[in-house]
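hey so i finally got around to running the thing on that chain from the lab meeting. sorry it took forever, my laptop kept dying and i had to restart like 3 times. anyway pasting the input first so we r on the same page abt which one it is
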Amino acid sequence: MVMNKNDSPSLTEKQAEQIRKACINAAREGFINASMSGLCTEGAAEAAIGAIQKLNLNEVLLEAGSKK
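ok and heres what got predicted. didnt touch it at all, straight out
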């Protein structure tokens, strides 16, 4: 992990990209699942947002670290 000017950890580019991919995948799956369950487009979009909010970022970062 890279340190910023305040000596606190910041994300590496690879970690940030892993988080972006995980968010896209979670949103896509949440939207598809909600649509298949009969929700309207607005409801499916809300479900997609909820899927991103539930994403375990620690788990994503651990996985990104293991793929070095």
